[in-house]
Amino acid sequence: MRSREMTLVSKTIKINLEHEKWLEFHPEINFSEWVRKKMDDSIERERSNIGKRKIKAIIVAAGHDKRLGSLNDNLPKCMLDVKGKTIIERQIENLRGCGIDDIIIVKGYKQEIINISNAKYYINPGF
């Protein structure tokens, strides 16, 4: 089970234990409504935290591929054009479309050619 599922299971167990204790003193409590309210509140809290998480992406663009022959003699693979856009432009466009703006690019081969705005860079000298 994933950690989020485990958290919900443990919350459900805690709710059940709390309810059993409360029933001793308050038999008039409607258990199903009470549990539904508790779970709805918990789910809503989880949902409200989703947008607050900061997701980062790392694009490894340091290598040189000899299998491509002369296609990348003067360009890194990520700078190859595919229907009017480079591969790395497509990757970044997709990441930003998913709300991921903190992007790190690992550069190496022909590193001076890779220049994307609003991206951070790391240089791999041993590409």
TrEMBL record:
GO terms of molecular function: nucleotidyltransferase activity
Domain MobA-like NTP transferase, first and last residues per copy: 57-111
InterPro entries for the chain: GlmU-like (IPR050065), MobA-like_NTP_Trfase (IPR025877), Nucleotide-diphossugar_trans (IPR029044)
Keywords assigned by UniProt, alphabetized: Nucleotidyltransferase, Transferase
Cited SUPFAM superfamilies: Nucleotide-diphospho-sugar transferases
PANTHER family: N-ACETYLMURAMATE ALPHA-1-PHOSPHATE URIDYLYLTRANSFERASE, NUCLEOTIDYL TRANSFERASE
Protein name listed in UniProt: MobA-like NTP transferase domain-containing protein
Species: marine sediment metagenome
